[in-house]
Amino acid sequence: GAHADRLFDSLVRVFRAEAHGGWHYSVDAQGRPLDLTQDLYTHAFIVFACAAHFRRSRNAQARKLMLATAEVIESRFKSADGLYHAALSADWKQVLRGPAQNPMMHLTEAYLAAAQVAEPALFAKRLRGLAQVMTQSFLSASTQCIAELPQGTPGNRIEPGHQFEWLSLVRESAEVFDGLDLAESLPRGVHWARGHGVDAGGVAAALDEQGAVLDDTRRIWAQTEHLRVLAVLGEQAALNQALAAFRARFLHPGGWYECLDAAGAVVRPDMPSTSPYHLATCLAALPGVV
Q1: Could you give the C-alpha distances from 186 to 112, 166, 182, 224, 287, in angstroms and in order?
Q2: Cβ atoms 63, 117 nearer than 8 A
Q3: Which residues of 28-40 are buried (b: 16+ CB within 10 A; e: fewer)?
Q4: Are 11 and 65 in contact (CB under 8 A)?
Q5: Shortest CA distance to 225 belongs to which of 159, 164, 160?
């Protein structure tokens, strides 16, 4: 509790963008911003973090900051067609990166967390709108998967790990997404991704729409999302098998291997701080297994 309070205080003190509002993605050891981009992924995680902190601490400032940041997202990042830009300039005036799957997925996750602590009807409406534009703009008709970029974008790709992550999110809050096309398409997309993107070496990073492997790297987060979706789907036998393979390949006494190649050789020996989040959400879905 006390450590979480200190982290929250430092978040507010160090990472708020004073000049134009919003949040800094990263700062140096002296607290100076390293990146002035207004980043949707960052803002989504601010909402998510504030919701989680408020649930545990009942810190009124966390709830207030969560709601204020959600309003910034709606007023700054959201475009007229209901999609959300991935990145804007520091002064909000220029679009640096257009809509992309990953920040919109984490915004979905953030709004689901927010709905647990404030304005459930408002966040449910935003979530249903998000789900509808994902289906309209990102869904690959032939695979029923959510692509990384809007349909028709050159060089688009499908990441199996993200299909698994989406299905877990939607299944855990089924009442919010009831009756929407996304809830219908995701199980089919997961089935396709499992058929084309998972083998004895684990989950591949990226495929094309024909199922050919574009990136055969085995990143740990995709493995944890595979385990999580098997738990959500209740496929115990497949989960046990995948969990044993995961433990053998990715875990070691000092932590984990971030990336392996298809043959199981370590590609990245470092352990970035983005991975514990995926490990934690996976573990939370595995009651009594680990």
Answers
A1: 17, 7, 6, 18, 24
A2: yes
A3: eeeeebeeebbbb
A4: no
A5: 164
| DSSP per residue, 128-142 | HHHHHHHHHHHB-TT
**Closest C-alpha to 199, from 138, 263, 256:** 263
How many Å apart are CA 201 and CA 216, to the nearest integer?
10
Count the neighbouring beta carbons within 10 Å of the beta carbon of residue 240.
12
- Per residue in 192-242, pLDDT tens? 999 999 999 999 999 999 999 999 999 999 999 999 999 999 999 999 999
Give the angle subtended at the CA of 162 by the CAs of 116 and 102, to the nearest 5°: 70
Q: Are 95 and 85 spatial neighbours (Cβ–Cβ below 8 Å)?
A: yes
Query: Pseudo-torsion of CA 42, 46, 48, 53, nearest 10°?
Result: 150
Question: Cβ(127)–Cβ(177) under 8 Å?
Answer: yes
pTM score of the predicted model: 0.95
Residues 6+ apart with CB under 8 A from 195: 211
> pLDDT tens digit string along 162-175?
999 999 999 999 99
In this structure, what is the dihedral angle of CA atoms 221, 226, 232, 233, given to the nearest 10 degrees?
170
The yes-or-no verdict on residue 290 having pLDDT over 80 is no
132 Cβ contact partners less than 8 Å away, ≥ 6 residues apart: 82, 180, 181, 182
> By the 8 A CB rule, do 40 and 84 touch?
yes
